[in-house]
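User: Can you fold this complex?
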Amino acid sequence: MSGANAQLEILPRSVQVLLAVGALGLAVFPLIPMESSGYYVQMLSQMMILAIFAMSLDLLQGVTGLVSLGHAAYFGLAGYALAFLTPADVPVSLWWSLPVAALGTGLAALVIGFFVVRTHGIYFIMVTMAFAQMVFYLFFDNAVLGGSDGLYVNFRPDATLFGWRGIDLEDKTTFFYFTLALLVLIYAFLRRLLFSPFGRALSGIRVNEHRMRAVGYGSFGYKLTAFTLAGALAGVAGYLWAAQTGYVNPELMGFHLSAHAIMMVILGGMGNFGGAIVGAFAFEWVMHLFKDMTKHWQLLMGSFIVLVVLFAPRGLLGLIDRLTGKKEKPDKMKETKEAP
Amino acid sequence: MDFANFLIQLLNSVQYGLLLFMLAAGLTLIFGIMGVVNLAHGTFYMLGAYLAWFLTAQFDNLLLAIVVGALLAVAFGWALEWLLFRHFYKRDHLDQVLLTFGLIYIFQEARSILWGDDVHSVAVPELFNGAIQLTDNLSYPVYRLVVSAVCAALALGLYLLISKTRLGMKIRAGAFNREMAESLGINIRFIHSIVFALGVGLAAVAGMVAAPISSVYPGMGSSVLIMCFVVVVIGGIGSVRGALVAALMVGLVDTFCKVLVPEIAGMAVYMLMAAVLLFKPEGLFKS
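Assistant: Here's the predicted assembly.
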């Protein structure tokens, strides 16, 4: 359904340069002496976390063509996992709690995925949303799980490794670099995955699922694997979010955050993971800008979203490519719709 | 649970189910006929409720407010279709999701600017204020019965419109095969405008008649939207009959779970949905 939009799998040079400059800029940012830099370091950490979240959704949305309107469920679940794993009086070790949280969310995505990946198109959108609401209410209605007030994570995870305390996540700058490292690692992993046989199969499913099945790919298994992996990676982002803010509530699993993630992926450009990063930063930046301008920022945000849909269907990376590239490159995977 | 209580809950579930049907019918028609996913459908319900509150304050008469409000809502739906939605019939579902998500933001803020963020209540009109004695020890508010009756009448009207009239035939033809219908001389553009305006009108009327029962508050659109999705998914997309059956099922499950097992009440309808999907991935009445 959304095959035609994912056109930048092979990133043009201009976009590669942009991403590299961006990464470098982030790497040196905390070193720049400036006023209230702590605030910006924290804000950029948050944007990076959302970028990881957006990339995890892009694996479904841009690569496989599955638009999930319930992706925040996995983000929130991992946040709660950290809250539950952290004892009341001491920090929990990062080295096992992060994998446990990610695997746990992956497992939740596997179970939910079993129901949802059999559906198509609009059904998939509605069903993923409904399942996310189910998770939302599970936490919202149960006092044991924190209820509508949520839970506090009293201690940031402890990253001591064999007695070495090089990484102190309590420190904002260290947390920033830790997040940046994970962002780069996950990006590299997903790019690698995109051009692996598995990634090619997912792209094939996006373009023409019937044909993929006809040539012998069990599309159910591929889609379920992608859904599980995307859930686990969203879990990494949710874990980091909870570790940074020290607080989780059901809103983290809500419909609005799921829709934000979709918007970020679209705004940047789908199907190449770089777009998800660019989109997450741009979306958050625009939102901060509007919030500073007026208390009726939602009006501006809504109009902004409508305008993006109307005029930039290929996202910002598509725009950059068009402005800097000589000619629009035809999508190798794109094909004309055939009559059924 | 004694019999009297059971009967009250049964009447409540039917009333809630019929209300949901009014919303889900619009949602499923707009999708089935135009192929548009409309996340902003819940805001039309909110719009209706706020209109009921605002117009009642002006006219001092809920019934008049509902009539005027319904006309306003239909006009609003017509304008919205003409301005925005008609450009999105052939676009990706993803684009439609985004467009309508952007619209939620805009409508919410517009509501906030126009009418503020307070919670309001609307009084039950004098005429229907009171309770009816069903059995010796059982009385039931008249207004809730009126709501059920209004929703049932509109549901019946919708059914007759679609299955018995000439316009309904054209609507069905357009949904079945657009090109064919057009080549037979059916003005699909016009049909789309009507269906969209009708959907908005139904959602707004649902909000208006519900206003005296539930209070009027800012977030009322999104919770009801998600319920509608569940109804549409259970019933089968595009099927009005499926929406009716599913809405009544959801009404029953939701109402009775709230009374009997409140711990899982929030999740109950989603569990129902999961159970249905396990056996019927395309919903009960796939059209």
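Confidence is low (pLDDT under 50) at residues 1-5, 332-340 of chain A. The CA atoms of residues 10 and 272 of chain A lie 7 Å apart.
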